[in-house]
Amino acid sequence: MTYPIAEFCADLGDVPHATDAMTIRKKSRDQFAVSPLLRQSLAGRVADVVASPRSKDDVLTIIKAAVKHRIPLTARGGGTANYGQSVPLQGGILLDMTGLSGIVSINEGNVRALSGTCMADIDVAAREKGWEMRIHPSTRSVSSIAGFVAGGSGGMGSCQWGMLRDRGNITAMEVVSVEAEPRFVELRGRDVELVHHAYGTNAIITEVEMPTTPAWTWKEVIVAFPEFLVASRFGVQLASEPAITKKLISLQEWPVARLMTALGDIVPDGHTMVNCMIAAPTMDAFKGLVDDFGGSIVHESLEGQGFYGAPIYEFAYGHGLRQIQKSQPTYTGLQGMFPAQDLLPTIERVHAAWGGTAPLRMEVFLSQGEVVTMGSPGIVYENEAQMAAIVAKLQSFGVKVANSHTTGVREVGIKQFDDRDAVFKRSMDPHKLLNPGKLDFDDIPASDSRSSLPTQGWSFRKAG
Amino acid sequence: MTYPIAEFCADLGDVPHATDAMTIRKKSRDQFAVSPLLRQSLAGRVADVVASPRSKDDVLTIIKAAVKHRIPLTARGGGTANYGQSVPLQGGILLDMTGLSGIVSINEGNVRALSGTCMADIDVAAREKGWEMRIHPSTRSVSSIAGFVAGGSGGMGSCQWGMLRDRGNITAMEVVSVEAEPRFVELRGRDVELVHHAYGTNAIITEVEMPTTPAWTWKEVIVAFPEFLVASRFGVQLASEPAITKKLISLQEWPVARLMTALGDIVPDGHTMVNCMIAAPTMDAFKGLVDDFGGSIVHESLEGQGFYGAPIYEFAYGHGLRQIQKSQPTYTGLQGMFPAQDLLPTIERVHAAWGGTAPLRMEVFLSQGEVVTMGSPGIVYENEAQMAAIVAKLQSFGVKVANSHTTGVREVGIKQFDDRDAVFKRSMDPHKLLNPGKLDFDDIPASDSRSSLPTQGWSFRKAG
């Protein structure tokens, strides 16, 4: 499809924009290459123009011009998402929000920032006043706050505070509609769920307000266990210890410790590693727990000071896959949610089923106040049929699988939809210009970049 | 039994001590009068002399003289305990530790203080550096830190951090043995459990180190619910919301709100009140939860600023009984632990069994990382047989009942004992002088001030 890009650009006034091939290619992709399926399906999907607002006025100028010329508009932050959330499937305008950056306010337990503000910059500013973000992605050094809430679901801190979607973890958002006369709307309370994890398909975010927690001195700790199942029980128990303040619990079965070459041979042969971030004052209690489970602390350092050259959280979640892919380019995984009810037995069943042929990687965190784990056996990718078979096998053991190899909001299956979402989408994006192809809605089909893995998404309804 | 008190006093040098009747009577009792049973069994139990150390050297002088003359030694802090923990059942020396007071250190996430330091004073000192105690008793304004860990089990903050006995909630203690040559011993990690909730029967505490949390601005909130069971579900859910920072969840069925006359008629007729302390920055999320459960916020103020003339936590736990006893002197209750497994059904069964004839009072908190409640129906005391019948009835519904009407450590049933406790007791108190009568041990019988309620104590073993 071709759009009247020259006319659009002429209406931008002095708002920075670019149409050169290098900028367009760079800004049209995120970290989707971590998925071998998306690497194929998203190849060549690029914008026609990259617009870079410096202010909310610039955002309004861009929206008005986009509406006038009916050109799709896809917002992007740091570009660190793993599902192609901000890849402009139908071309058009790529809205690079990273210039709309700055702290709006830092108060007791709360920070508000312009949408493109880098998460790391927010933490630096908050720390100067004694605070830090409760939850941040493994890509903190690059990702933006709006990108995190629009494309993410949790991260560091989720083992203490829960997922982003859990009550109280996103305080408010200011968003703007895509209309001839754009409207600013302030969302608070549970209304933030309308926009959270919707990939920018129903509004453009201009400000985000999130809770903070008093800043701690964090320790990075690698604990080795000879038995994976003991390590799992340790990780689950750690998440259940209210008196130990933690930010990360990442379980990696042998031989993941070797596949991440930056870790050298710090983890003994055959051992599962549990990578943790623990508030320094609670290390005593943490070490007591390690002892009780027969673990060995093989590394301990201040945050970001590990010999492995990066913060430990860059070895967790999707970021961990990228570490492995440095030595094993076709390595991948799935986002399986091991539900709170029957958690350890489910882990045991999955572990037994793969019998050490594919190491389990999972993070432990809270969802709706209960301990869950998220992850899957590691997979050396062959083809989509192989992946589909693994999805089905995981499901047969009670694991809920989100599809991390598709760009469709519904197909990923982390955001829940109801009638309010439909009303909101129609109201905020009446011309259906926002990030088209990600959300099949009314007469808008989702893109063919969806994969056909037989996933069912994550259920957030509690049993019973 | 008579002791050589004059000889003991002669050996004290300049260590302050008193033998006048008024001092002795005042320092020989705690808040046991909240129990109608203890009011009878502890009547007239007084010390022969009150010794008031100003320093650790004074403590050593007192211990040496006590050992030399073989006189029982019972340590006491603020005297706020509810089971007669520091009542000197066999007379002898009452060791008033409140003069051994002062902060030793305040570091990131940790405070260490001399044993007699008042909890409120610690919080004042900690707040100046941005910290506060994680957990404090409802008697914070009077109680000492050592009294809290020696006689208490939890309190404000336990809905966030768990009980004192949960891993990491007491960092360390310095204790001293009762021997001719007393030894100081530093207990860390799980070793602190030897002395925690042992009523000073196995060591004299000289310093306590506890974790702190960054200080919040606290809101006191009273939420009214027309239905008790809805209020219960709300309270349990609140305890499960990691993103809401809280310090108190106290459920009080109608008509408790009227029995506490200081509350006036703020709570509508027939309503259960849930008294909460919520960190101000998380009030938005809290209010969302209240709305979801159909509650009404009938009062909100800063901590200690409520119209009812006292901090809201003085209306919770055992302290709440004292509020009721102002208008209903024979009102009492039991310490029933409603276990995490089957929590709401157990509450429903108990509620149905009493059918509104006796209002349920319970606090919601964490034990071993799981949500539990503690409390019982309110009881207008008649006699011990009546109490025993209520204990049995609660037990029949799955409630574990601790005996809050006895002075025996084992009979109360909150501290767990094993062989290490026996070794420790023999080592630290070889002459069996510490707080005799509270712990039946070797050939030391417990006092006849034990009641014969058929309680079984609180089990801290997890099911499964």
Q: Care to describe what's here?
A:
Chains A, B: Residues 448-458 have a biased composition (Polar residues). Chains A, B: It comes from Pigmentiphaga litoralis. Chains A, B: It holds the Pfam family FAD_binding_4. Chains A, B: This is FAD/FMN-containing dehydrogenase. The structure is a homodimer of 464-residue chains. In chain A, a hairpin with a 2-residue loop joins strand 17 (360-367) and strand 18 (370-377). Chain A has helices spanning 5-10, 21-27, 36-41, 56-69, 119-128, 145-151, 158-161, 228-239, 256-259, 283-292, 317-325, 343-354, 384-396, 409-412, 419-428; strands at 17-18, 49-51, 73-76, 93-96, 103-107, 110-114, 131-133, 172-176, 184-188, 204-214, 218-225, 246-252, 272-279, 296-302, 331-332, 335-338, 360-367, 370-377, 379-380, 400-402. In chain A, helix 8 runs antiparallel to helix 12 (343-354). In chain A, the strands form four sheets. In chain A, strands 14-11-13-12-17-18-16-20 form an eight-stranded antiparallel β-sheet. With 464 residues, the first copy, chain A, is an alpha+beta fold. The longest helix of chain A is centred in the N-terminal third of the chain and has 14 residues, at 56-69. Among the domains of chain A are: 99-214, Uridine Diphospho-n-acetylenolpyruvylglucosamine Reductase, domain 3 (2-Layer Sandwich), CATH 3.30.465; 218-302 and 334-402, FAD-linked oxidase, cap domain/gating helix (Vanillyl-alcohol Oxidase, Chain A, domain 3), CATH 3.40.462.40. Chain A is globular, with a radius of gyration of 22 Å. The interface between A and B is large, with 42 and 42 residues.
